[in-house]
């Protein structure tokens, strides 16, 4: 119920209770245009879907394997379903046949190589010798963080504590124009 009220009151969607059918209906206000409206969400035009899948294809050709693919796979599946629903599935198949990237000396790099490189960076003695590490507070305790590149005697780089999840939610919502009552309602509905 609160979600419907939020769509109606905050986003201006014409949702009304229909006593006859005992259900909520999408009904434009009197005098409003009869044009279709979209509920806030994740919307793509077919051309945008093709563009995103093209990028995915380029990424998979540059770095084959699981490093990026496991993160992109859910989006890729959703984009394919959008293309099929809109009748553009053959466009992507044609794209795969037309676009081919050939890398020089391309080889698969195991994901653990990046972990090893990251650990080697953290353990590098020059970073400690040049005092490039700064301890930053987090909700889980202090962690080492690299100072930004470049040094100056005129300023000290800002390295504030990392906030906990939701720490600044209320302040941000107030800044966006929500009232304290709206925020309390969101908390009660467990939306925040």
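-> sequence recovered:
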């Amino acid at each position: 119920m609160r979600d419907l009220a939020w769509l109606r009151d905050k986003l201006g969607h014409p949702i009304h209770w229909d006593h006859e059918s005992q259900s909520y209906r999408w009904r434009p206000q009197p005098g409003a245009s009869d044009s279709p409206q979209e509920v806030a969400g994740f919307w793509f035009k077919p051309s945008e879907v093709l563009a995103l899948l093209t990028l995915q294809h380029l990424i998979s050709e540059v770095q084959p394997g699981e490093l990026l693919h496991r993160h992109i796979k859910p989006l890729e599946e959703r984009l394919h379903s959008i293309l099929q629903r809109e009748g553009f599935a053959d466009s992507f198949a044609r794209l795969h046949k037309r676009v081919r990237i050939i890398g020089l000396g391309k080889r698969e790099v195991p994901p653990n190589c990046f972990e090893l490189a990251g650990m080697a960076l953290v353990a590098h003695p020059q970073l400690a010798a040049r005092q490039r590490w700064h301890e930053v507070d987090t909700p889980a305790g202090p962690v080492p963080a690299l100072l930004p590149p470049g040094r100056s005697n005129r300023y000290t780089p800002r390295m504030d504590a990392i906030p906990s999840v939701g720490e600044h939610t209320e302040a941000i919502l107030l800044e966006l124009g929500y009232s304290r009552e709206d925020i309390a309602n969101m908390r009660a509905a467990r939306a925040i």
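The chain has a mean pLDDT of 77.
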